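LAB NOTEBOOK - FOLDING QUEUE
OPERATOR: T.R.
BATCH SIZE: 2
PURPOSE: Compare the predicted structure-token outputs for two unrelated chains run back to back under identical settings.
PRIORITY: normal
REVIEWER: second-year student, initials M.K.

ITEM 1
FIELD SEQUENCE / FIELD STRUCTURE:
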Amino acid sequence: MKIKSILLGAACAFAMAPAAMAERGSDGNVNIIYWQAPSIMNPYLSGGTKDLEAASLVVEPLARYDENGALIPWLVESVPTVENGGVSADLKTITWKIKPDLKWSDGSAFTSADAKFTWEYCTHPEGGCAQSEKYNNVISVDTPDALTVVVTFDVAKPFPYGPFVGSQAPILQAAQFADCMGAKAPECTEANFSPVGTGPFTVTEFRPNDVISLAANPNYRVADKPAFATVSFKGGGDATAAGRAVLETGEYDYAWNLQLAPDVLANMAAAGKGTVVSSFGTLVERIMVNQTDVSPALGDERGTVKHPHPFLTDINVRKSLSMAIDRALLVEIGYGAAGRVTCNVLPAPAIYASTANDACKVQDIAGANAVLEAAGWLKGADGIRAKDGVRLSMLFQTSTNAVRQDFQALIKQWWKEIGVETELRNINASVFFGGDPGSDDTFQKFFADVEMYANNFDGTDPESYMANWACEQAPSPENQWQGNNIPRFCSEEYDALVAKYAVTGDINERAEIAKAMNDMLMQEFVIIPLVDRGRVSAHANNLGGVILNTWDSELWNVADWHRVK
């Protein structure tokens, strides 16, 4: 099998022409606004995109994906393959060669020991790691010398690029996090807020859910980068204010995730101060359907697999919820050309996109009512269906955002038409997407019946992404609510497909397995996909070097950003 064949992707990106770089810090300050404010700078303790991207300014992986989805070396000399000898013929080991003379921002040497430590940190049996699926099948990380990392798997691994690859799996400094292992991980506030890194910037002040102040890393490996001396990273507010701050007022240089109605965005762009950039990747707006009972009366066992949901464990109910939704209308009002109807949680690359679930593209209120009626869920005098004393009454939560609240209102009405009562709740995005295990309002803890958000994955191969819904990935008190199987779905058949995918080399066979996993999730209706969303951000007209990347962190090349004179 040729490893190169599964490293290819495609994206449409827009960039300003780069200018010649001056000395480090010569362009002063750059202002970035993420209306979902970061709450932590440790990617292993949060699944929120806002936290992963903020952290990518500081901590870095060995390799990452470029704007075309191609895997490129970052802290290493080259990407290991079978052809160049970096991946063993039996596909059980991958050897990374670190670039010489790399330094952490504190001036100490970056070595292979830091990579080994990062693996031990994320896989500690007493801790919870939001990116644990990146290290599936790893049985050892060896360090024969300071610049060599040898990762060994317990199976032949045709795609060995999970560990230490992409913004979701960066390297942590062993010296800083040595006393933060296992259950102690969330307690290391200083390290989690201000990690030592190899990236272009370092944290000078971190105010959770508010502002991050950063300065150019004096030990960054490229002498004349970054061009900016400081970064002001503002969090909070809403997408409308963020868009205006770049496109209308020019107060900020870069605004992320402009989740705005098409006409609103167009009106802002007409002011002429900034440029909207967009590209499709794998970002899917979806509804997660909880398979567990979230009754507060269950105490510490609330939202755990010990207690099945009283009615969402009935596939007829889940199927009807999906059938009642008019996805085409959601796309029209919410995203316009930056959205596409999807019936899959895995919409891209094209080789992985299934057509087996396309029935969802057409709303079917009558059909949904018929399914519920046949399953014994009958309407009462109030129009709400019930069975054996259990009413179809749900709490539907999401983050605070105008588009999402519009979606909630429409979906509530459609569900009312099939006899389902829905209470709506929206939560501040900085909290909802935060990783605080003590908060009851995070999307991971999921103390609601259904919830809506969008997610995607690094790169173009979905092996780690599809492993998110393995049984062991269910969030729980034992893993500090850091698992990625948000619906708490569990299937031995699905887990078997995860294992099979991990050892399959042929690209076409891998695609068929990925489709089968996607189809199982879709046909079990534990995930209800809504919109294949394009990434939409904006930058000031005088900010150069911006290359939108949908396959990695949007801030992946911030070291190349500069002020256009």
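ITEM 2
FIELD SEQUENCE / FIELD STRUCTURE:
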Amino acid sequence: MEKKTVNTPVQQSSDRNDDEIDLGRLFGLLIDRRWLIISVTFLFMVCGVAYAILSTPIYQADAMLQVEKKSSGLPALGDEFGEMFTSDSEAATEIEIMKSRMVIGAVVDQLQLTYQVTPDYMPFIGGWLARRTPGQDELSISTFNVPQGYEGEPLQLEFADNGKHYEVRDEEGELVLAGQVGQLAVMDGFELMLNDAVLTDTYEFVLTKANRLRTIRDVQQDLSVSERGKQTGILSASFQNPDSVYAQQVLNAIAQEYMLQNIRRNAAEAENSLQFIERQLPEVKGNLTAAEDKLNQYRNLSQSVDLSIETQSLLERVVEIEKRLNELELKEKELSRLYTKEHPTYQSLLEQKAQLIREQEEINNQVGDLPETQQEVLRLARDVEVSQEIYVQLLNRMQELNVLKAGTVGNVRILDEAVTNPEPVAPKKALIVVLATMLGGMVSVGWVFLMAALNRGVETPEQLEELGINVYASVPESPTQVDLNEKLGKLVRRTKEVHDLPFLALEDPADLAIEALRGLRTSLHFAMLEAKNKVIMVSGPAPGVGKSFVTLNLAAVLAQAGQRVLVIDGDIRRGYLHTALGVSNKYGLSDFLASVDKSPDGGPIDKNNLSTVIHKTKVPNMHFISRGTAAPNPSELLMHPRMEKMLGKVNEHYDYVLIDTPPILAVTDAAIVGRYVGTSLLVARFGETPAKEVEATVKRFAQNGVDIRGVILNGVQRRASRYYGYGYSYGYSYKSTDA
């Protein structure tokens, strides 16, 4: 039978709690680092406010134009076919024309926009101060030319003699031009005609002869043109620039140039049609004269002057058909320049032309029935009438085109000339401040989450217990110790010497960190029942975990309980417990192990008498052995038989012997001392010491035959992201550090 696994309600509740703890931890991280988040967010907000205030304002000039319906560009076609070519001007096409190099380039040349002058103000606040000063720094330049290699290169222009004379230097500081206001200055390919100079806030300017194409592209980038609504023909144009007057001038020039090019374009269409008619007119006039001569000659020869009524009617019909055929002939020549014969408009014209040709053939058949004299007179009279009609028609059209050309106004007009809004459109100060504040919040929150993800420090006893490592005690952070350490830091910076350091167990015996060590005292009592001796080693994975703090204050707590306690500074390399207890370090552990028989001051020492290295402290029942003189071979000294003998003797006279050793992952001293002791403890720093580091430390001791009884988690913080209960409900944050 298949075995099914069913989640019990307890398991399901546990799963839900895990999810809630994860979400709660993220929220708690934000609460724990709230001051960091607030500070960073406030800093970003201040930067946003500073940028919004100090940044150069951008002004916008606006104008409005109308593109009317464009009539046929072929006046010679007349009204009938002209309607076929009437269409609305596409807004997208007109916008591209307005932003084209043809229009913008003419404006650049007209306003001399390649002459770029910028006042050289103080960085950051110079422009802001200048904008609040009455008047404006301006230069009026009519001529400015530079050699080809200097095009686009900034030149430094500096005035002297109260603005009468000036010098122009390149980026390397070399003088390239010198002159005075109102006179043309020429030197080695440089030309500058400075008409006038208004100097309000500075005597220095940056002068640049910009590339024409690049200037055109800059103007195109700052120019915005769009159609209002759909198929309205109303164009809205805007131009942005830090100089409000400059923006208005440029946009007005662009609108005027766009309108003028539209007028020139329409006049060019009329000019093309006029030229076509002028080419046809001499030929038509010659044909008319020849036809009249032939008709007169024939009448004189045949003495036939009048036409019968029937012949006159046929003549009128023939002339009308010929007239219309000639009109279609002109229209076909115009259409042939625009369309192919397959185009519907072209096909319609050909159909009309074919219909007239058929009517002409019918009339020609009727003319064939007339007498020969009447036929000849009719034919000659027809040529005269047709030529005359065509000639008159061309003359009329030429007059119309002349009038049209003279009165061309185009199909574009300016509705609203460019006007600059007095309020800047950028930067949007409120938006910048809001975005900067939001960015600061996101950056700070992201930093908190990133640090939390990268920080693998132990935060719960369960993290170590899952690795099979016992946690004997959790020592909270102590605010009192923080204050003591700050005072110590000031003392060290001021005197460079430290004696008789503050002692938390004496300064604040009711501190929760000391209470936690009292709990550890109880645990040690039972843990040491099966130990081989009463010697306790306190070590750690790395420096800064607080093992010296734990050693001293644990010893003080044990001594206050009436136990005889001996503290040994086993860190022969860098131990400093003697400074915390105010004890001399002239003759200590290293000297005793090395069998030194004289003290540093030359006095005799009994090298076999332990009393020479054991000192009383300010804590009753608590004695101390300092590290002694720094030795070059601490590991060898700790392995000396005198070390084991010494520990054997003190084990007989004291209830507890605590040895503070260096971190095991740094040096091997702790592994050597661990073989002599009955109980070994590790100190790990809350939130800083990784669980893997603690595990590696335990393995390192195990490889050297040392069994770690448990870990003391030091510096535990009461965080919103990770709740810990100690049997107290104080809402404070506690801190403990190395003494």
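REVIEWER COMMENT (ITEM 2): Residues 552 and 683 are 13 Å apart (CA to CA).
FOLLOW-UP: none requested
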